[in-house]
Each structure stands twice: as C-alpha cells, then as structure tokens.
TrEMBL record:
The Phosphatidic acid phosphatase type 2/haloperoxidase domain, residue ranges: 184-321
Keyword Signal: yes
Lineage: superkingdom: Bacteria
Name of the protein in its database record: Phosphatase PAP2 family protein
UniProt keyword terms in alphabetical order: Signal
C-alpha cells in the first residue's frame, strides 16, 4: 500500500454503542454545547446570517452553527479532529449503516450520475428542475458545463467544472452570465449562494467525519483486495464511487462531513430559481432533495450531513431573500424570468405554468411520485420522539413562498408553513428556530389546516398565481374559507375543516368530493364549480348573482349532495356542463341536487358543453332535491 494511503488510514476509534468506528474531524476548536434552542445570545437567523464566517465557530457567534445546534444532541465535538463522542449512538450507527446499504446497492449508472453531480457546478445542476423550461434557460442565461458524463475509471487528477472551449462567447458555468437575457436570475442565484452561505464554518465547528472515514468494525471483513488507491477493500463499508476516489480531500482536518456543502448549494440554488420561476417551485424542491441524495449514493456524505445541509440552506435562502438589500434584485429576477419565458414559449403569465408542466417526459412530471420520493428524504434515519408541538415559524421564512403564493399575506404564508411543517420530535430538525421542520414541497400546495377563518383574494387582472391557484393538501382545522376577488381557487384535498365555505366573488372549484369541509356553504356572489360529484355536510345557501356550476352526465346520482337545508335565493343561477364522455340525452331525467329540504328555485338553469345548443333543461323540483329533464330545442 502506498505510504500516503497508510497515513490517511491512521484514524482513532470511538464507540458507536458497542462497535467501533473510524473517525475524522476537521479542526481543533473546542466546542461542547450549542444544542439549546433557547440560547439567550441568539438573534433571529435572518437578522444574523452574515455571522456565518470561518472566524466564528460557536453558536454564540455564528447563526448557522446555532440553527444546526440540534446536532449537538447527537454528537459531542472534541478538542481535536479525532476526539468526538457519539451522544446518540443508535442514530449515528443507523446513519453509517444507511450509507453502507445505499453505496453497496448502488448501480453503475447511479455511480456515474453521482460523479457528475459531485463535479458539476451545483447551480447548473439545478437547472434540470425547470423541466420544459430548462433548455430555454440554458440558452437565455448562457449557462454551460464541462461535466456531462463520468469517466470509466478513476481519473488521475482532480476534475473541476469549467466553460468548454467550444461554448458561445460570454458563456458561464453555474447559473449563467450576468450579461445574458437571464442575467438577473443568474445574479440572484449567486447572491443567495453568496459569501455568507458556506458550509465550512459548520464543518469546522462540529468536526463530524465523512462516512467513508467511518466503518463499523463488527461488520467489516477484509477481502484481501485493494482499491485503485491501494486501500483495503472490505465486504461491508461505505463504498465511494470509484471515479471520485481522487476527488476526495487528503486532509481530514479540513474535510468534515456535517453539514454537506453540496447539499447546501443544491438547496440554495433551487430556492433562488424557485423564487424567480415559481411555476416550477415543487419540481425544483424535489430536484434539490434528489441531487442531495446522490451525496449519500456517492459515499461522500451521510444522512446527517445531508439533513444539515438542507436545514442551513433553507434558512440562508430565506435570510438572503428577506434582506432589504436584495429587494430590487429579487423583483428584477422574477420579472425577467417571467418576461423571457412567456416570450420564448408564446404564453402569458396565466398560461406559463401549464406550459411548464406540459412535457410528459419531464422527470418530475408526476407530482405524487415527487411527494413519495421527498418524504423519506426529509428525515432519513431519524425517529420521531416526544409530544407534537406546533411550529413557531422562523422570522422571515414566509419570503420563500412570496412568488409562489403572491395573493396571500405574509402572515397567511406563515400559517401555510406552520400547518404543513413536519411534526416536532426529530432531533437535528428541532434545532434553534426549527428551520428543518419546514416542508416546502407541501407548503406550495397551500394550507393544511385552517387554524382560524381564512379570507383569500385572487385578482385575475394581476395574472399568474394571482389569477388561479390550487390548494392540494387535505385541510382540517376549526376555521373556514371565504373566497374573494376575480381569480380562481381550486381545492383538491379531502378536506375536514369545520368552518363555513363562503364564495363572494370569482370562482371556487371543488376538485374532490369532500373539498368543501364540514361546515355550511354560502354563495353570495361569484361561482362555485364542481369537477365531480361533491358533498356538503352542512347547509347550502345561494343568493342573487351567484352561480352553481356542475357537471351533468347520464347514469349518475346527484352531483351535489347536501346534508342540511338548501335555500335558493331569487336571481341565483345553475349552470350544467354536459359530459362529452357520458352525455345525457334528450328525454332523460338527471338528478342534480339531493337535499332535505330544498327551498326556493334557481332563476336560471343553463346548459353548456357538447350538444348544449340542441338541448334545454327543465328543472324538476321536489322537497328533497332537484333533477332536470332534458328536451330537444
């Protein structure tokens, strides 16, 4: 074995609760605490984020170290790089075993992919989350990379991303060129990833080793073989991707694992892009979690490292976006992205989101698949313990949803973050201000609970998400919903909120049979549209000028079932959409509303859709509902 390899394998061992582990740590700083989330010295992170410098390595002096303080409940930093102590050995054991499992199961294709995302500029890698807009972005931003594939064997030297020799003039790696058509967006990404966003202070402060420097002796068996660098090959250890062996640091003192720098960079870039291009918000969040997972697949980082990188990036992105000094830049980046993409695609602010999800080959086209992939990556090997407590949303966190839900107030966006957050009880995620509990993928789907009555105004004249949005979470809570404004809001969850649903203007769409919760429904104006049969568990009241818009098909029960009283005011309208797949025919009587009792009548019953010009609807009222008889015109 080469002498350099011998030197690099001289590690001390610490017990992980019954078996030994090889440990490395990156500095000689002595720091024994910082787990207490109630540290009296702490300012809100967004007001203190510029303290994240390598000259500040304690929770009292560094805001990032402070918000990562939950890790100090798991790992006690030593006074030297090789003297740390596991405080929760069962978690750290699971952490190493997970890395062993993932790297042993890794396919060659996964290994090659992990190499690409290790060496490629992280901001460039995140462009893939833009889906159908990605190629347009690369062209408009003049963003390029020299890392597009992995070599077949271990490279002889370190490989870094660079502008290819044949790239167009003015091209840049990462998010692109500042002088390009998307220069403000590129600048926003770089600003979010600015001088206070490094993971190095955290690495030096916590001194937690990378997984390939830790292998449990009880599971390690020497095969008698050596790898490309002359290291012994074990049948059970964290196996680094062969192409990355010479890309690793040879100085364990300067090469801590927690938090993962690549993970931090992926999430920072994703949230900057998501601010500028909120039409791809959830897909960008999903890609950041996916690319962060490749750090574990590569053998370069553990789950603890990746979780730490996500936590710090979430807070750092919020702090940078909330900083008044960046207000003009973030507004310019959003405006520039919208103008560029609508011009390139022939869309408008109202139709860009549909275009951004129009490619069936998009790797992130399946929202439900994205959700399933994301959920385990938010907690990895952590087990939840203790009672559930509501999240106090960190100051400034609401800025992360500012362009995704622009029609909500800042306090409403905070409520969205609070009601969609992960439950308490996950060590590490429960650090100071609990940034790790934010679930941004879920938050993009709106409220998960109406803690009190919610009034929302969507203004169609402003376009984009102001004009139309969908809340896809299952909503509970004691409050209700009042819909104002000319825009359209769609509820697709199985909702169980107890308050009333009130439509005063615009359109509210029920996209689930139980979308309207448990309370009464009152239409005082605007339109309530159902996409499928819907149930109202309270009473129904409809006033003059309000429209009920329902689908109508043959061989189907009532489209609207109301448990309480139905009261129809003079001037109310019923609009029935004839179903093209199962069209009702002339002479048929189709049930529309089932209720007991029903009082009043619609002022107008109209037909829309296929063959609506050939049929007319004659309402048939009874004390317990309404049907329509279809007749030829």
């Amino acid at each position: 074995m080469p002498s350099s390899a011998v030197n690099r394998r001289r590690f001390l061992k610490v017990s992980f609760g019954g078996s030994a582990a090889l440990v490395a740590a990156p500095t000689l700083v002595s720091w024994l605490g910082a787990a207490d989330a109630k540290a009296a010295t702490s300012l809100p992170f967004v007001d203190d984020y510029k303290t994240n410098l390598t000259t500040n390595l304690t929770p009292e002096t560094n805001a990032v170290v402070r918000i990562l303080g939950g890790f100090a409940q798991v790992w006690k930093t030593g006074s030297a790089w090789n003297t740390g102590t596991p405080l929760r050995p069962e978690i750290l054991r699971a952490n190493v075993r997970y890395s062993i499992k993932i790297t042993k199961a890794r396919t060659e294709a996964q290994g090659r992919e992990a190499f690409v995302y290790d060496r490629q500029h992280q901001s460039y890698a995140m462009i893939g989350g833009l889906g159908p807009l990605a190629a347009l972005y690369r062209t408009g931003a003049k963003a390029v990379t020299s890392i597009t594939s992995a070599p077949d064997t271990t490279p002889a030297t370190t490989i870094n991303d660079a502008v290819p020799a044949d790239a167009p003039a003015g091209s840049a790696i990462g998010a692109g060129s500042y002088t390009s058509d998307l220069g403000q967006v590129a600048k926003l990404v770089d600003t979010v990833r600015g001088p206070y966003a490094s993971g190095n202070p955290g690495k030096y402060a916590f001194q937690y080793p990378r997984p390939w420097r830790m292998n449990e002796d009880s599971q390690v068996v020497d095969t008698g073989k050596t790898d490309a660098l002359g290291y012994p090959v074990y049948d059970s250890k964290v196996v680094v991707v062969p192409q990355l062996l010479r890309q690793r640091s040879t100085s364990p003192v300067d090469d801590g694992g927690f938090p993962s720098g690549h993970t931090n960079a992926f999430h920072l870039a994703s949230l900057a892009f998501a601010y500028a291009v909120p039409e791809r918000f959830q897909e960008l969040v999903t890609r950041a979690l996916e690319l962060s997972h490749t750090r574990i697949v590569a053998g370069m980082h553990s789950t603890m490292d990746v979780l730490g990188g996500r936590v710090m990036a979430t807070a750092l992105a919020a702090a940078t976006l909330a900083d008044p000094a960046n207000a003009d830049l973030k507004a310019a980046a959003r405006a520039q992205a919208l103008a560029y993409f609508t011009a390139q695609t022939g869309t408008t602010a109202d139709t860009l989101a549909a275009y951004a999800h129009s490619d069936a080959s998009d790797a992130y086209a399946d929202r439900e698949a994205n959700r399933r992939a994301n959920e385990p990556r938010l907690t990895y090997v952590l087990d939840r313990q203790g009672a559930k407590t509501p999240l106090t949303v960190p100051k400034g966190a609401e800025v992360l949803l500012e362009t995704r839900q622009p029609y909500l107030t800042a306090e409403q966006r905070r409520a969205v973050l609070r009601t969609t957050a992960l439950p308490s009880g996950y060590v590490l995620l429960d650090g100071f201000e609990q940034w790790g509990r934010l679930n941004l993928f879920a938050a993009a789907d709106g409220f998960a609970s109406f803690e009190s009555d919610v009034t929302v105004t969507l203004d169609a004249s402003k376009g984009g998400f102001h004009a139309a949005d969908a809340w896809r979470n299952d909503i509970d809570g004691k409050g209700g919903l009042t819909k104002l404004g000319s825009g359209t809001l769609t509820l697709t969850g199985h909702n169980d909120y107890h308050g009333d649903t009130v439509v005063e203007a615009g359109t509210l769409v029920a996209g689930h049979a139980n979308a309207l919760g448990r309370g009464d429904v009152r239409l005082t104006g605007g339109t309530l549209r159902a996409e499928l049969p819907v149930r109202v568990r309270g009473a129904w009241t409809q006033s003059k000028g309000a429209t009920l818009d329902l689908p109508l098909r043959r061989d189907h029960g009532a489209v609207l079932t109301v448990s309480g009283r139905v009261t129809l005011g003079a001037g109310s309208v019923l609009s029935l959409r004839l179903d093209a797949g199962q069209p009702a025919v002339a002479g048929s009587v189709v049930p529309v509303i089932a209720a007991r009792p029903l009082r009043g009548q619609f002022d107008k019953v109209e037909l829309t859709g296929v063959n609506s010009d050939k049929l007319r609807a004659v309402p048939v009222y009874t004390t317990d509902g309404l049907s329509v008889r279809l007749l030829k015109r």
